[in-house]
């Protein structure tokens, strides 16, 4: 039996009917068409499925879709337009923090949650915030550098406009 | 993988949740944060007919700090508990232990009570509960009962809860007097389940140890109190707790654990680490309790 699910996804009010055993990840990818969040482990180990629910990063594989009724969900598709990448995405490109790219959407979501809450973060805080994201390609150094670089840029921008 | 289909019940009240559990105790599972249960469903290690979601029961989301205990509701997220300064001021070991529970993304969703009820022997919160002491409040159609921390953990992923019971809150006792604490775990990576870990509380009256609680987790089918080591140091003067006594406490701890070989470490290694962590836990707890030891 399907139940109605009403959520705000990347700023858009969205209604779908879903069966209760479907995960948020599954519904985002297959029903709503947002394939940015990836299915890696389905076990909350890898973080490739990371999305923000009410601004906080969670593993969407371990979250039943129906439990998000009435909530605000942000996926990688809601972070920026392809023509104008977010500072974190730009920094990942410039620092070489992307190789195969499978973990990247999840990394960006965890990093965005960190920088939104704590733009003046240090390296330890970046490493802690990305603790739930596995990358099998880069060895993490370039990813951490990229997030720190994005943090600097966001702070500079805040400084010039504020 | 995808979970097998189940009936989903987004309960609004404890009575509603208890009613569903009572109608099908063996076919029902309680869902709180889901950070253990949903992966278990995804991997099809469990296939309940009824999933009883308690996240919408507002009365379960609370932290109440009382003079002698802290009560944490079954709906309260780990990150909320981690950030509670009021709780931290009376039970600082909780924040330190929680920082090792999965990653921040897990703690955004997971609950303290859910972790205790899941009873993974290598998990942090069951060990903290056993060390600090306290009680679980369980509801069923038959009524309400409490289960003490010493009677709660029975075996691997198995507690004293009946299948028709639901835990609504867990109380942690607040230690009296000058109490020092220690938490440490050995893991290959931060956020992994522990290969072995220790939680300790040591209280002093004057220069004498009045109470000692030491728990090793990851060293058996449940978290294990190191009662022989506790007895060795209880009643001792802090200034006398040095090389010989610490060595004996470490030997007792190594003998008390019941580890197994697995892919992460050998049983021998775990026994060695149990002794080492016990020794360190006593030393550091005494320092924190403010003794000159």
From TrEMBL, chain A:
<dbReference type="InterPro" id="IPR036010">
    <property type="entry name" value="2Fe-2S_ferredoxin-like_sf"/>
</dbReference>
<keyword id="KW-0001">2Fe-2S</keyword>
<dbReference type="Pfam" id="PF00111">
    <property type="entry name" value="Fer2"/>
</dbReference>
<dbReference type="InterPro" id="IPR002888">
    <property type="entry name" value="2Fe-2S-bd"/>
</dbReference>
<dbReference type="InterPro" id="IPR012675">
    <property type="entry name" value="Beta-grasp_dom_sf"/>
</dbReference>
<keyword id="KW-0560">Oxidoreductase</keyword>
<keyword id="KW-0411">Iron-sulfur</keyword>
<dbReference type="Pfam" id="PF01799">
    <property type="entry name" value="Fer2_2"/>
</dbReference>
<protein>
    <submittedName>
        <fullName>(2Fe-2S)-binding protein</fullName>
    </submittedName>
</protein>
<keyword id="KW-0408">Iron</keyword>
<dbReference type="InterPro" id="IPR001041">
    <property type="entry name" value="2Fe-2S_ferredoxin-type"/>
</dbReference>
<feature type="domain" description="2Fe-2S ferredoxin-type">
    <location>
        <begin position="3"/>
        <end position="79"/>
    </location>
</feature>
<dbReference type="InterPro" id="IPR036884">
    <property type="entry name" value="2Fe-2S-bd_dom_sf"/>
</dbReference>
<keyword id="KW-0479">Metal-binding</keyword>
<dbReference type="InterPro" id="IPR051452">
    <property type="entry name" value="Diverse_Oxidoreductases"/>
</dbReference>
Automatic annotation (TrEMBL), chain B:
<dbReference type="InterPro" id="IPR005107">
    <property type="entry name" value="CO_DH_flav_C"/>
</dbReference>
<keyword id="KW-0274">FAD</keyword>
<dbReference type="InterPro" id="IPR002346">
    <property type="entry name" value="Mopterin_DH_FAD-bd"/>
</dbReference>
<dbReference type="InterPro" id="IPR016167">
    <property type="entry name" value="FAD-bd_PCMH_sub1"/>
</dbReference>
<dbReference type="Pfam" id="PF00941">
    <property type="entry name" value="FAD_binding_5"/>
</dbReference>
<dbReference type="InterPro" id="IPR051312">
    <property type="entry name" value="Diverse_Substr_Oxidored"/>
</dbReference>
<dbReference type="InterPro" id="IPR036683">
    <property type="entry name" value="CO_DH_flav_C_dom_sf"/>
</dbReference>
<feature type="domain" description="FAD-binding PCMH-type">
    <location>
        <begin position="1"/>
        <end position="177"/>
    </location>
</feature>
<protein>
    <submittedName>
        <fullName>Xanthine dehydrogenase family protein subunit M</fullName>
    </submittedName>
</protein>
<dbReference type="InterPro" id="IPR036318">
    <property type="entry name" value="FAD-bd_PCMH-like_sf"/>
</dbReference>
<keyword id="KW-0285">Flavoprotein</keyword>
<dbReference type="InterPro" id="IPR016166">
    <property type="entry name" value="FAD-bd_PCMH"/>
</dbReference>
<dbReference type="InterPro" id="IPR016169">
    <property type="entry name" value="FAD-bd_PCMH_sub2"/>
</dbReference>
<dbReference type="Pfam" id="PF03450">
    <property type="entry name" value="CO_deh_flav_C"/>
</dbReference>
<keyword id="KW-0560">Oxidoreductase</keyword>
